[in-house]
Design a protein that fits this description.
This protein has 109 residues and is mainly alpha-helical. It contains five helices and three strands, in the order E-H-H-E-E-H-H-H.
């Protein structure tokens, strides 16, 4: 699997390197694991590209901040990866409240 530094993800997705760092920080706070190299820099893979593309899309299309977007995407990702064991489980969706969201500055201009 190919690995990318921040500047390459920025070019692929069409956002600034600063925005990549902001998205990555929001994803990490929401529980997403991003690999780091021995110097502590984030290393992204092909699996991360669609996630960043979706964050960019939702950031421009919705009024949500990056923290809310990250939580929503990861919740959706977890719902799609877990088998639906029963009807009762599918009706017990966790509600995310504003107080559950990570406190991240909204850097949209």
């Amino acid at each position: 699997m190919k690995e990318y530094p921040t500047k390459d993800i920025a070019e692929i997705v069409g956002i600034s390197a600063q925005k990549v760092r902001s998205y990555a920080q929001a994803l990490e706070k929401a529980g997403y694991a991003i690999t780091r190299n021995d110097r502590g820099f984030r290393i992204f893979t092909d699996n991360d590209v669609p996630l960043f593309q979706e964050m960019k899309k939702q950031s421009s299309e919705t009024g949500m901040n990056v923290g809310e977007i990250a939580l929503t995407l990861l919740k959706d990702q977890n719902n799609h990866s877990e088998p639906d064991n029963s009807e009762a489980d599918s009706t017990k969706q966790n509600e995310v409240t504003k107080s559950d969201l990570p406190q991240i500055e909204d850097d949209r201009y």
